[in-house]
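TA notes, week 10

Several of you asked for a full example with nothing omitted. So below is the full record: C-alpha cells for the whole chain, then the designed sequence directly under it. When grading your own attempts, check the secondary structure regions first.
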C-alpha cells in the first residue's frame, strides 16, 4: 500500500493517523463525481450616499467602506477634531438595510490601520428600500449630515 499511496499522491504519510484526513479530503472534493454549482446573486438593494455641495456627491455602497474627511463638509472644526474618515457598514436584510456609521481617528494611509482601530460610533439605522435618512448625529462630530438612501440595485435587463 505504501508504494501505491506514494505513486498516487507523491507522498507517504508519516503516521497512520494522517490517512483518514487524506481520505476525508478526497471524499469531500470529489463526492459522487458531481460538482455543485454555486451561483452568486447580486444584492437587490444598495446604499446611495449623497454628500452635500461636492462635484460628485454620490457614493454607492453594497457592503461598506470609508468616506475620507476630504470628501465631507466640516461645519465645526473644533468638534471635528482630528478624525480621518467616516466608516460606513451596510448590510442588506430583505427590503431594508442596516447602516452603521462610525468616526475613524486612525491614519488610514497606513494599510494596517484597522488592527488598532480608534473609532466612535455615530449610530445605526434601519432604512427601507426607497427611503432615506440624514443622520443629524453627524453634526455633533462637526460634519454636515449627508443623506443615506436605500435604492433598488436589481440589474437592468434589456
Amino acid at each position: 500500500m505504501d508504494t501505491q499511496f506514494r505513486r498516487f499522491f507523491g507522498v507517504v504519510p508519516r503516521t497512520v493517523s494522517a490517512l483518514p484526513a487524506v481520505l476525508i479530503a478526497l471524499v469531500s472534493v470529489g463526492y459522487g463525481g458531481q460538482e455543485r454549482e454555486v451561483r452568486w446573486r447580486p444584492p437587490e438593494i444598495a446604499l446611495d450616499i449623497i454628500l452635500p455641495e461636492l462635484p460628485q456627491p454620490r457614493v454607492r455602497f453594497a457592503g461598506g467602506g470609508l468616506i475620507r474627511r476630504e470628501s465631507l463638509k466640516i461645519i465645526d472644526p473644533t468638534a471635528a477634531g482630528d478624525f480621518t474618515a467616516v466608516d460606513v457598514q451596510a448590510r442588506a436584510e430583505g427590503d431594508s438595510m442596516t447602516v452603521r456609521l462610525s468616526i475613524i481617528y486612525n491614519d488610514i494611509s497606513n494599510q494596517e490601520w484597522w488592527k488598532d482601530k480608534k473609532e466612535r460610533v455615530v449610530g445605526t439605522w434601519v432604512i427601507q428600500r426607497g427611503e432615506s435618512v440624514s443622520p443629524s448625529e453627524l453634526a455633533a462630530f462637526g460634519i454636515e449630515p449627508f443623506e443615506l438612501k436605500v435604492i433598488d440595485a436589481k440589474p437592468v435587463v434589456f
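The first helix runs from residue 2 to 9. Use that as a sanity check on your answer.
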